[in-house]
Specification:
Low-confidence stretches: 124-135
Radius of gyration: 18 Å
Structural class: alpha+beta
Distance between the termini: 51 Å
Number of helices: 4
Strand content: 25-35%
Shape: globular
Largest sheet: 6 strands, mixed
Order of helices and strands: EEHHEEEHEEEEEH
CATH class of one domain: Alpha Beta
Mean pLDDT: 79
């Protein structure tokens, strides 16, 4: 049996509970489990851009194995475009790492006061220093943000 982690950005807490076996049997795969979790968290009417809209990351039974397409996962959400259920499927190392850590799902709720990151090292939760308030730089595209950070640190690459 795997685990489901719920990260509440508003309350700044993480809750980890076992994923019910009945859910895993009833909804085979990450897409079905994500839809089930969305159904449990969403109540209409819901602002798709509001803090009550969950972002759900789920893996399937073969994620993290050598099975073909074993590095796939799903992101489930209440779509701002259609106003109904939406999902995206992607691949990469994140999904295998999530599965290897024993998680079937990661549910992100709420809204943080600051843009930042958290990571877990050796059983201790750490918040990197320098979390910035959400402001005019928030939402900047990745290339522009990278160049701004380099300029702030005094890093310059000739010819760029």
């Amino acid at each position: 049996m795997g685990l489901t982690a719920t990260v509440d950005l508003t309350q700044r807490c993480v809750t980890i509970v076992p994923t019910p076996e009945a859910e895993l049997d009833r909804f085979l795969g990450g897409r079905g489990l994500g839809l089930s979790l969305l159904w449990q968290h969403v109540r209409d009417p819901l602002d798709p851009f509001g803090p009550d809209n969950p972002l759900i990351f789920t893996v399937g039974p073969f994620t993290g194995t050598s099975w073909p397409a074993g590095a796939r996962g799903h992101v489930t959400f209440h779509s701002p475009l259609t106003g109904i259920y939406g999902y995206a499927n992607s691949g990469g190392h994140f999904w295998a790492a999530l599965a290897h850590c024993g998680f079937d799902a990661l549910v992100v709720l709420g809204q943080g006061r600051r843009a930042g990151a958290a990571r877990r090292d050796a059983g201790r939760r750490r918040h990197p220093a320098g979390g910035r308030p959400v402001g005019p730089d928030h939402g900047r595209d990745a290339c522009a943000a990278k160049h701004k950070q380099r300029r702030a640190r005094g890093v310059h690459r000739p010819g760029r």
